[in-house]
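Class, look over these structure tokens:
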Amino acid sequence: MLNQPLLAMDIGGGTQDILLYRPDQPLENCVQLILPAPTVICARQVEAATAARRDVFLTGYLMGGGALVGALRRHLAAGCRVYATGTAARTVYDDLDRVRQLGIIVTEDPPGDAVTIKTGDVDLATLAASLAPYGVNLPAQVAIAVLDHGEAPQGTSDRIFRFQHWQRFVVAGGRLEDLLYREPPPYLTRMLAVREQAPGAWLMDTGAAALWGALCDNQVAARSAEGLIVVNCGNQHTIGVLLQEHRVRGLFEHHTSCLSGHKLAAYVEKLRAGELTNEEIFNDGGHGCYIDPGYRPGTGFQFVAVTGPQRRLTIHQNYYWAAPYGDMMLSGCFGLVAAVDHKTR
């Protein structure tokens, strides 16, 4: 394992999972937190303003939308106004014209009576202040995972654009270590915003962090050479991957809300057989599917490991529920620690 302290933060749609890793302690004794995701925190602030019939003003950084965007839509439907700076407004859509079409007023100068809501995925100062009374200091080195759709060109579906990123990754060799960035691609604007809030941080996609974390489970690691399927059932996105050691041979990504246990199991079997198509996933409301043309079904890939907070979708399947170091909710954090360790050896 990594020989230096690391703050690992896996920021999802429902929770932000935090590990203060220290090499001089067993992982079980390291400080661990499961907190509401930043988008959930901001959404609750909007909901409180809606109940009070107050306008809101968003200012800060581009962040994950999810719950916040839903709360903003309900706020507008209730007849209340939403103001946002250009930067914060991109949390809703990269295209500010689309933001305005929703009824959001993009401005740097809101009315004085609006409730100010600060947007952003990371607030290290608040975390440090919360832990200080316990005598806990944040490590200097930081690794953060977020799901980034990327800034799609005008007129391009963000579902398609995100999956093009995944497809390029598989075509280029599918090595998990290639998804850990110091300098993310310029179109991954959410990661760039995180880097502004946490300069020098390692950055990774939440899906990749969960995959790497699953490999920290001994039962999963034992099957990695022969190939296996890893499914991460997140609160908003589900990804299923043909994984062999640290190489992704194919994958699909869908929205968890569109899936039933039966449908997910059918997709897993089609993925294993090499028969799942991009069109099938996209037309069902997901992002897509891509399988390496060199993949041959029937050679391994029989074992299915599942992680993620919505893993109960698979409760009726004979899948293995991965729990690295006995803690499924920190899979992404363990994955970040393992990825940084691999990258810095």
The mean pLDDT is 95. The chain has two domains: 6-22+142-344, 38-119. Residues 38-51 form the longest helix (14 residues). The radius of gyration is 20 Å.
